[in-house]
Give the backbone structure.
Amino acid sequence: MTTQTHINIHVLAFGQIADIIGQSTFTYSTPNTLLALQTKIENDYPLLSKIAYRIAINKKIALENTELHEADELALLPPFSGG
Amino acid sequence: MMAINWKRYERQIILPNFGLVQQEKLAKAKILVVGAGGLGCPALLYLAAAGIGEIGIIDFDTVAESNLHRQVLYNAKDIGSNKAIVAGEKIALAYPDCEVKTYPEKLSIQNATEIISSYHLILDGCDNFDTRYLIDEVCKQQNIPWIYASISRFEGQVSVFNLPDANGIKAYYTNLFADKPSNESLLNCAEAGVLGVIPGIIGNMQALEAIKVIAQIGQPLANELLTYNGLTNQMYKTKIL
């Protein structure tokens, strides 16, 4: 049996996502893959699964599931629509 | 060599990284501003003031009283009038060097290719995803760079799409958000509220990116997304591809 490693990452939440989570910067304990993080954070904040958003890891948009590391900076970026 | 009004543009021509060559590039440039609203109004004013030779303005909407706190080209007498027409008249009056064309209609699948292909650069000041995805698609087909921006309450996003970065990589809006979100899943300015100065700042950032792309100075936001938060003064910049 493998045990998933838990790490602490730094999260920046933008636009509506900051409203859903209730804060715009916070530290979050998560399993160390992007998919596992998404599952966990959408479970913690169910409204997140209802909107589109992209995740940037250390200032680059993540294209696929990838390993996360302790102290990584993740940005949760929804599309904006106002003009 | 074009006849440049030296006196009018002197203060930017004397800049170390700017000059007559760059001013002439602005004078030869044709820019289309899609949406003459919160983002479009400041962008139009500063692009025309900077000496852009030709500006197109497309907007089907009419001025409403609730627009006036952020759409600074309009006043109470303009309520009910088409935004493209009113903005065009005011820009042409204030900046006679600038040739202004107005399109009091909606950018659509039917007219987008013909209108967009007449310009060197597109500035997106729209407030809906249908128009934004249409701009992305037509600019890709016609190989025209475009300056994106959008607002969410006290925050704004800015990027330059379809322009190669230092490594030759071009990003499109669809690289950021592949699937068009439903307009219902996101709040627009009418529902979410907006502080007028935020689109003022972000629309000016779009004008600056447009000037950088046309004059070929600095590092435009090619393949990068910038987010500005007006409450914290924080800027966050990420690579797209």
Q: What stands out?
A: The mean pLDDT of chain A is 94. The CA atoms of residues 21 and 45 of chain A lie 7 Å apart. DSSP finds two helices and four strands in chain A. The two ends of chain A are 52 Å apart (CA to CA).
